[in-house]
Predict the 3D structure of the following.
Amino acid sequence: MLHDVISIRDFEKQDIERILALAEDMEPLARTGSDLAKGKILSSLFFEPSTRTMLSFHAAMERLGGSVIGFSDTDTTSVKKGETLADTVAMMERYSDAIVIRNPLEGSARLAAEVSRVPVINAGDGSNQHPTQTLLDLYTIRKEFGRLDGLTVAMLGDLKYGRTVHSLAYALSMYDVSLVLVSPTELRMPPEVIRHLEETSVPYDEIMRLEDMPPVDVVYATRIQKERFADPNEYEKTKDAYRIDRSTLTLLGDAKIMHPLPRVSEIAKEVDTTPNALYFTQAGNGIPVRMAVLALLLGVVA
Ligand code: CP
């Protein structure tokens, strides 16, 4: 197992399989709790807003019997006085047994891992990577379909800045899948990800209109992320590009709809009660998957 979880590209397929198997074992403990990580402390350093990732890491650590220290608002920390990321991490590694970090700068988690002797988990570094989101996405798909191989997965929305779809595309390339990439021209999947799909012989189509969607097993929708756009005009042009509601859902057949959340307007609330909606189940799977990641990095399971 890796010392840190920084990029899904650092993973071998066997690492992913091990985490997915352990997450299944963690399911009962995610309800009852355990003392597997009793006495261990997780540092939670969130330089950017988060609901699911931060709080599911906290819940996961507590369900393992450990505890959490950290911040979600740098205004209350010495970052406000100009302390560097490296110095902040150098402190927290002395106060805890593992660090989970979200920071808007691409490469920030890698930098933290270089400074820290305790394991570092990337909870999102700018538009780059969000590896534990990917692990819970894979876990959710496999739980729903009983397999990953043989599926067609569509990724919809902001494929340019969306770190979740970057990580997921890399991970799915280890399996026998086909991809459909649906985005406005301005928000196409970055060339380096496309290059990787080609190098790994993953069949993919790029389309722009939801109406042109072929039959797929999963639609992985994403939010058009206002906070990532340097040019507000570009955001205005694309923000309402796609909306899944009862009427557009008819184009998607039985496809399961996933979304890393938060959603804004891209999935209507009326979809929540349809058999297609998988996104809240997906978010819930964050607990056993993050318990598995923490347990492995902390060395509290074999
Ligand atoms: N999926 C996800 O990263 O959600 P948060 O931004 O709420 O953590």
